[in-house]
Amino acid sequence: MEIAIIIIVGLVMLAAGYIVATSLSKKNATSSANQILADARREAERFKEEHIFKSKEEGMKIIGDAERTANQRLQKVQSSEARAKQREMQLNQQQNEQNRRKKELENLKNTLDNREQVIEAKSTEVEQLHRQAQDELVKISGLTVEEAKEKLVESLKDEAKTAAAGYINDIMDDAKMTATKEAKRIVIQSIQRVATETAVENSVTVFHIDNDEIKGRIIGREGRNIRALEAATGIEIIVDDTPEAIVLSGFDPVRREIARLALHQLVTDGRIHPARIEEVVAKVRKQVEEEIIETGKRTTIDLGIHGLHPELIRMVGKMKYRSSYGQNLLQHSRETANLCAVMASELGLNPKKARRAGLLHDIGKVPDDEPELPHALLGMKLAEKYKEKPDICNAIGAHHDEVEQTSLLAPIVQVCDAISGARPGARREIVEAYIKRLNDLEQLALSYPGVLKTYAIQAGRELRVIVGADKITDAETEKLSAEIAKKIQDELTYPGQVKITVIRETRAISYAK
Predict the structure, then answer these.
(1) Are 37 and 21 in contact (CB under 8 A)?
(2) Residue 202 · residue 251 · CB < 8 Å
(3) Edge-to-edge strand order for the sheet containing 236-238?
(4) Which of 114, 330, 360, 496 could cross-link with 319 by S-S, CB 3.0 to 4.6 Å?
(5) 356, 392 in Cβ contact below 8 A?
């Protein structure tokens, strides 16, 4: 079409040139015609190029629009395909999850059915065993079910009677607390008249301080220092208005000595807080143990006794911190040993053996554990355990006639023991019975599982029981306290009432290195 237009334009221009050429002169006509023809050709060529360029531009624009439209439609199609694939994956996952849950439900149903069958079988078996056990109990005890119930009711009645007796004691104690002032004055005067110096010496240690400001530091903020010290040593620490003095009260001399030395180190050092208290008490306890061994060695050397087992030497050293009816046990044993040596020499026997038997005759009073045996038999067993000779073992076991005397050493030890204990002022029965009661209190509570330490304080009016946090729960502590109280009521004799305090604490210890 464009070529046709160009041709038409060219023809028109040729015609025009021809007309002009005819109107001009012949000479000029030829040159003018050629000029016009050339101009027409140039114009036609220029017009042709313009139209070709415009046509190309329009074609390129149409092609670009078509490509953009195609790309947009392609993107829409691709996004639709992606959404369709994602939806398909979600549907597949949901279907797989439904299939898995369906299988789990089927497995659970099968498991429940099997367990139900097992439970039914076990129930049947338990019923059969229960009937068999009842039949066996009836055969063994000769009691029917009704008779056994009656026996159980009787035992519950006895327990109720015991509880009622405890309630009666509590009521009587309350009545005593509400008595008149005159009755209190009479009781206090009676206590003061009966109290002896020996009782004080065996249950109280006075710790002297430079000034009363130290008392506040020993007590600590809200009393935490004194509580930590009492818990670590098992000794009651009395801080009152007594000038420049603190009273350490406890029936165990070893504990009192540990508390005294620990207080001395803490006051000298100046650092007093619960962690430091525990550290110092542990260190002092180790020092006292070393001093016990050193005392035993020194005693055996002084008496000329050789070849004694190290454990027996340690027990001899522990005698320094024990008393027998108010008489120091180590001093009593030394006196008995020397008396035995003198008597054996007069009778023509071996004085070294007699001295050895006299020193060891009360070794059963200082064991690490205290079984239910007389101290003479326990001492004989310890001597046999540590390879002492048979005649010495017999002298130890027979000095209170628990076993038959088979050697001449036995009556010598028996007589010399009586001589040492019978001298005026040597012994007091009341103090020994008091200390034995406190020891029995501690040992009774220590027999329960999970109990780590026991401390009888306030002259036996309170028993503190420390249990392991990993062995007994908080709920079980109440049950343990009630059980200990009931056992004390059933087995021990004591004045007034005993408060049982069960302490359970959890500690976390780490070390920064």
Answers:
(1) no
(2) yes
(3) 204-208, 245-249, 236-238
(4) 330
(5) yes
Query: pLDDT higher for 7 or 432?
Result: 7
* Residue 368 and residue 322 in contact, taking contact as beta carbons nearer than 8 Å: no
Tabulate helix, strand, coil % of the chain (nearest 5). Answer: 75, 5, 20
Tens of pLDDT along 457-504? 776 778 888 888 888 888 888 888 888 888 888 787 665 678 888 888
Query: Which burial class, exposed, middle or buried, applies to 318 when counting CB atoms under 10 A from its CB (0-12, 13-18, 19+)?
Result: buried
All residues at 6 or more sequence positions from 237 whose CB lies less than 8 Å from its CB, including other chains: 218, 226, 229, 230, 246, 247, 248, 249, 259
Give residues with Cβ within 8 angstroms of 137, minimum separation 6: 143, 148
Q: Rounded to 5 degrees, what angle do the CA atoms 58, 63, 65 make?
A: 95
- 504: which strand partners? 467
Q: What global pTM score does this model have?
A: 0.44
Which DSSP letter does residue 205 get?
Answer: E
Round to whole Å and give the CA distance between 258 and 233: 7
DSSP string, 21-72: HHHS-HHHHHHHHHHHHHHHHHHHHHHHHHHHHHHHHHHHHHHHHHHHHHHH
C-alpha Rg value of the chain to the nearest Å: 55
* Helix-helix angle 2-23:26-141, to 10 degrees: 170
Contact (Cβ atoms closer than 8 angstroms) between residue 404 and residue 385: no
Whether the CB-CB separation of 262 and 229 falls below 8 Å is answered with: yes
CA 347 to centroid of chain Cα atoms: 61
Tokens of 40: 């027409």
What are the distances in angstroms from CA 20 to CA 17, 34, 295, 335, 462?
5, 11, 159, 174, 150
DSSP 8-state secondary structure symbol assigned to residue 244: T
Top-confidence range, 6-20, 176-190, 219-233, 241-255: 219-233
340 to each of 345, 352, 413, 448, how far by Cα in Å?
8, 9, 6, 42
Helix intervals (H) in 220-371: 224-233, 253-269, 274-303, 310-318, 329-347, 351-360
Run of H or E residues at 79: helix 26-141
